[in-house]
Amino acid sequence: MRYLLFSCLVVGSMLSVQAQSNQVRITHDEAQKRVSVTVDGKPFTAYIYPGPAVLKKPVLYPILSAGGNFITRGWPLDPRPGERIDHPHHVGMWFNYGDVNGHDFWNNSIDVGPEHKGPFGTIVHTGVKSMKSGKGQGELVVTANWLDKDNKVMLQETTTFQFKAGTNNRIIDRTTTLKAMDKDVVFKDNKEGMIALRMARQLEQPSTKAEVFTDAQGVATKVPVLDNAGVTGLYHTSQGVEGDAVWGTRAQWNKLTGTINNENVSVVLSDDPNNIGYPTYWHARGYGLFAANPLGPSVFTNGKAPAMNYTLGAGKSVTFHYKLLIQSGDLSDIALKQLIK
Questions:
Q1: DSSP assignment, residue 202?
Q2: Is 17 helix (H, G, I), strand (E, B) or coil?
Q3: Which tens digits make up the pLDDT trace of 72-116?
Q4: I need a surface site. Which of 85, 203, 213, 340 has the fewest CB within 10 A?
Q5: All domains of the chain, ordered by start, with CATH?
Q6: What separation, in Å, do the N-terminal and C-terminal C-alpha atoms of the chain show?
Q7: How is residue 201 annotated by DSSP?
Q8: 238 strand-pairing partners
Q9: Contact, 296 vs 310, CB < 8 A?
Q10: What SS3 string covers 220-285?
Q11: What is the reported pLDDT for 118?
């Protein structure tokens, strides 16, 4: 009896350890144009590149917390009840910009309306360079081309994703290097950028009125008021700014807190001191757009700061590094600083 009890305890302990091994596995399904990332066999995220007929850029979609809840919006790929259906170009987590040599990479989608005049740029996946699975961490390296309206390559992109998993958190480190081809590339001062997520409805900030937002071309998008039941989001930056006031301010990091299916989560996007324009400006809206944009100082300050109009010379490269932390449970600012080092 004692032996049986001891054996059960040992087996139970082994199963518990095995269940929390945080094994990150990365698998590529070329037919589905999808690289899946799992933790102990459960979904974390996926790098998807279905092509311009579906999406005008590769994205990470969906993204889940350690508790298994979607932190990203489902629409337009997988609509969920109660979601907003605005901004069809907001899918998962992406990296692009609103004015690159006059081309709009941000607003491009298969549902772009006639009010958006373009010209539009498209980001096309060109290859998976490497994949590495492992305990607590996995790595994916991919390449893509930024194409102009004539499908000529303006920029070559190489991106390294590091996917990390703890018992109560998930981390995505994204390092993207852009190389200009045979011409200088100008990222004109523009608010539509640069690394961004579209959040699940529960992580939006409660809204008490309908809103109308305009893009860099002055095109208006109406964002209606919805039922606020279960909507719990709140932005909070490293500078102590909160709520809607974070838009257009600068900070090292921005933390979005909320509750999804009884799981308290903190979603933190952080800038890197080596990035251009550090600390970044925040293009974060209460309706679920969570973006960091270091290249639009003039537009974010209503002209008080000079326009950057960052220019990448022909043949030159620039690198951007951002970290996304998804923490289950409460996360103090002090603990946050340790996790995003």
A1: G
A2: helix
A3: 999 999 999 889 999 999 999 999 999 999 999 999 999 987 777
A4: 85
A5: 23-340 (2.70.98)
A6: 50
A7: G
A8: none
A9: no
A10: EEEECCCCCCCCCCEEEECCCCEHHHHCCCECCEEEEEEEECCEEEEEEEECCCCCCCCCCEEEEC
A11: 82
